[in-house]
Amino acid sequence: MMDNKIAKKREGTVEFFIYEQDLTKIPSKSMNVFYNEKMILNRDITSLAIGAYKKLWDISSFSLIDSMAASGIGSIRLLKEHEELEKIYINDINPLAVDLIKRNLRLNKIDRLKVKVSRKDANSLFSDFNKHYQHDSESNSQKADVISIDPFGTPNCFTDMAFKAIKKENGLLCITATDTAVLFGVKPKVCIRKYMSTPLHTDYCKEIGARILVYFISRLANINTLGVIPLLSFYSNHFLRIFLLSLKSKKKINDNFLNYGYILHCNNCGYRSEFSDNIVQIPHYCPLCKGSKTLVYSGPLWIGKLHDEKFLKEILSINSVTTHLNKKTIDKKIGYALDEIHMPPYYYNIHNLCEELKLKSVPKVNDIINAIRKKTLKASRTHFDYLSIKTDMAISDLKNLLIKLTKST
Predict the structure, then answer these.
(1) In sequence order, what are the beta bridge partners of 233?
(2) DSSP strand pairing (172-177 vs 227-236)
(3) Which residues does residue 260 pair with via DSSP β-bridges, in sequence order?
(4) Which one of 25, 192, 224, 302 is CB 3.0 to 4.6 Å from 214, fit for a cystine?
């Protein structure tokens, strides 16, 4: 029999209850109500992203669906941190979670007129929104301005219905995936089944996983006669969180097809590049390995920009006046994401390259970047991996540079 004892915790300005049993459990489906303290960063980024969305798209009031709210801590934080949040639908299919949500709303003295709590499957909730809209098709007011999908595992079975509930133009979708072993190529057959894309388990698999997820979401948008613009694709603590803007312009949707493609990788020398043409024209021979048939591919996936520059700069601006504990971490990660916007869709792990070259030491990342830029080539850090760099320098030249830098130290 379940122990009904609850404990009180604090996150920022919000106090909330959680079951005492769950405090000592590893985050999993075995918890009475799911809670992961490491996901505070996810909630921080989400709040900042909504702040940037409000500012850049001049949002004076908005509605939000938190489709898998668990204890409700994320929803309550958004209510406290965004006065413009006019209506929020806090949902979870777990009856224990719904009970905890109601307790936490009372604990934080939340205006219940702004809140509707429900116990439904997320797809059922999205379907209800779609039905209400169809009854009043001349109005867009019944569509949600913001939708958050934050499952334990894959978001793949919820995304299609979310597009039926989101505002068609300038709606904000916030989607998390925690099945990173699938997206990062550890379980390639599962990735093909769940995301209809072939992954690669390489040193830059985190970015490949993000690009597979964005492509998958974009394709589901297309099925619903919509398109998306990635505003921020964020990796941390074994989860991916993608923020996308909905759009209905057929021209912009068609333009997005140029962002669909493949990443080629040589298992022999580490050569990599993107490919945007027809899959039947994908080359199989590595240009650096003298005709060896060593190229493999990942895709289809998103080969365009993963972030929007104005959006990231606005997040940094808002973050500069916040007081939460993750302020420095967010500055670092978003700053690196800003640097990588105009870079190739892959990166190089410097430690792995140095190990491959059997170098006795590893040059500093900033020294490598400065040396590449002196050759009038592009180079940056990446938020996906602090031990890696992005560059348009050929891998053979990069290896030679590492050898040269190591000898000079």
Answers:
(1) 242
(2) unpaired
(3) 302
(4) 302
Cα separation, 52 vs 314, in Å, equals 5
Establish whether the linkage from the previous residue to 27 is cis, with ω within 30° of 0: no
- What CA–CA distance (Å, rounded) separates 16 from 13? 10
Please spell the DSSP secondary structure of 229-274, one letter per residue.
Answer: EEEEEEEETTEEEEEEEEE--HHHHHHHGGGEEEEEEETTT--EEE
Q: Show the CA angle centred on residue 350, arms to residues 347 and 353, nearest 5°.
A: 100
- Residue 89 tokens read as 């639908």
Q: Any residues with CB less than 8 A from the CB of 37 and at least 6 apart, and which?
A: none
> What is the DSSP annotation of 74-94?
HHHHHHHH-TTEEEEEEE-S-
φ/ψ of 246, rounded to 5, equals -80, 150
Q: Closest Cα partner for 76 from 67, 84, 66?
A: 66
pLDDT digits (tens, 9 = 90+) for 107-151: 999 988 999 999 999 999 999 988 876 666 555 457 999 999 999
- Whole-Å CA distances, 313 to 12, 32, 235, 308, 341: 23, 39, 18, 9, 12
Instruction: Provide the mean pLDDT of the chain.
Output: 92
* Residues sharing a CB contact under 8 Å with residue 64, sequence separation 6 or more, in sequence order: 50, 75, 78, 85, 87, 88, 89, 144, 145, 146, 147, 148
Per the rule left: phi > 0, alpha: psi between -120 and 50, beta: everything else, 4 is alpha
The residues of the chain scoring below 70 in pLDDT are: 1-4, 22-28, 30-31, 133-141, 409
What does the block give as tokens for 335?
């700053």
Task: Give the full edge-to-edge strand order of the sheet including 388-391.
Answer: 348-349, 388-391, 379-381
Would you give the DSSP letter of residue 166? B
